[in-house]
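Hi V.,

You were right to ask for the full record rather than a summary. Here it is.
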Amino acid sequence: MSYERLDKESIRRILRENKVYGWRFGRGSVDKIYKTYKFKNFVEAVEFLNKVKDVAEEMEHHPDICIFNYNLVRVALMTHDIGGLSRFDAELAIKIEEIYRSLKSASKES
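Predicted structure:
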């Protein structure tokens, strides 16, 4: 599969157009975006991680994910094949945001 490298402004625009906020740009030798999500407890954090895993497998695009402080999940995205950011990263960020919103809505209802 061929990926086109996108600059930061292109990624920002795609996320903004889809009402996805809070993703930051990582510093270092490779461009990436990341976001930390907060949950009530460890079980919710793992549930989120598992749902992200399923979407990532479907897309064949695997983020770096870390659970820390028992209820925080940090997700980092980059397209390894190009050593930077592509539309694929923005698309996965949008799907991750949908998962998070869905879990938060379900949590409020229960």
